[in-house]
Amino acid sequence: MTKEDVNGSVVELSGEHCYDSNTFELEPEERETAEAGEACQAVPDPEIEKPGPYAGMPKEVLLLYSGQARYRLPREIIFWLSIVTSLMLTGATVAIIVVSPKCLSWWQSSPLYQLYPRSFQDSDSDGVGDLRGIQTKLSYFEYLNVKSISIGSIYKSSSNDFGYEVEDFREVDEVFGTMEDFENLLTAMHDKGLKLVMDFIPNHTSDKHIWFQMSRNHTGKFTDYYVWRDCHHYNGSTTPPNNWLTVYGDSAWDYDAIRGQCYYHQFGKGQPDLNYHSHHVQKEMIENISSYSELHHDYTTTQLGLHDILRNWRIVLDEYSREPGKYRSMFTDSFDDNEIAKTMLYYGSSGIKEADFPFNFYLTRLENQLYSRNVFELVNLWMANMPQGHWPNWMVGNQNVYRVMSWAGRDYINVINMLLLTLPGTPAPYYGEEIGMDNINLNSGNADDPGKLNVNPEVARSPMQWSSDDNAGFSKSNRTWIPVHSEYQSVNVQMQKNDSGSTLAVFRALTLLREKELPLHRGWMCYVYNDSNVFAYVRELDGFERAYLIILNFGQGTSTDLQSKIPGLPKMMHIRLGTRAENNGQMVKTSAIDTARGEGLVLEYHPEWLFHRLNRYEKQCFISDRACYLSMFDILYKTC
Description:
The protein is α+β, with helices and mostly antiparallel strands and 640 residues long. Helices cover 25% and strands 17% of the residues.
């Protein structure tokens, strides 16, 4: 490219260097060349070296390389791999959620520890247990590895039935503290990951309840809050409307002079039954019988309308359970004697849920007949009748029955605890069972007027035995509401914590094992053997490398040959846990499993086959929510 300057000279603007003879002073040789017609000569540009990529390079340099194949292709590969990986992870997550069984809720994963609030711990030295006292003992539940606690009635009530003649469902009885104390206890429990189950008494109220006071005066809607019937009352004597009896054997009717009628009470006369059905009670039964257990209770217990009420309560609880992790459970008490089909109705029907479970009181019958076959029959009674997919529960004691120690004795307390904590479902131990507390003798103590009690359940409600200190460490009062057991200095928590072979040590080891081993808290249970001395069952889980054979001796010392009775059973098994600590870790031959009187064994083995997959055991195996274990990913799935 050329351009003329103001003097008419030609100047080269390209990469060539030009010489203007009018402007530049040339050497003689150069002048000769210029004059020969070579006025311009091409001079090459100096070669500029491109910089390589480096950290912090500017945009211009970056763009020089980003489009090159060797940089572009890896970048695109990484991008698409990220997309594919994200889709695969999302798909895998969805698949895992779809095939995974439902996680166990809090009321399934832990034992439900029953405590009687008047007798657990006294914080203000008045001789009566209270809410603040319970709060001071929360670390004990952590020690036991128990995360659910059921507390008996603490509502404002008269003292006739110690919390079960409720005067106000919205107030805490002052003997236990205040509503603030209750809220503090609840907060402290939640801080430790503990759950609280409150006792609720919907059957009746106290005759001092405002509802009853309004009802006896025919006040508006309260008129029919209770079951009233005309009865003949003359000169202090009452002829009841029928022959219905209380659970204590006397007439279930009592005359109220203010209303001029009799009211119905299934329990004490200070506990009038609420009229949930709002219809006339059926006419008196024909038979004139004096024993409550001999009557047919077609009109006084387990009415069909009751289940409608429970379903409505379930709906209310479900409304409060919508927040994640805040599930509200409901358990029911049902005393249906031998009519277990009625008990099972409390689970609800297909698609209509009622209670999470009705409390299972059938094992309390062992009081009069503790032997192996009876244990098997009572366990099977529940499992064989429970609706499919529901969750069982087990208890051998509560505040209304005699303590296990009183009828089983110290020889059998550990094996009974092993039964509760290795069966499928939720065990519900009663406070003190973990250390082997016994009934008290009320005739020799300082109970608060036990003569006014219709029955004598207080023998199983003595103060918790914490230590060998005065009053077993329960209270600093000079007088407790009911006597402390005389053997508290040798049977208490403090002493047993230091004894590896104690009842407490066995109980705690069982709760820890139950939590740790999947087959024990959500696997199959299969009955494999029972005779007059031994009851045996297996806990197993598909895909899990370990299974457990539970051997429980409820009779006399014996040697059991399971090898010949169960072909293919491993010849040797390992004692994972026994009621006798000195045997833990030993190997036993399944052809001769020796157990002493009241001894229990949890035998661990590696199964080559599973009992629940064999036709022979089809009707002897149970599971609530089927699950299989995938060891590669340490997860459970249900499509197995």
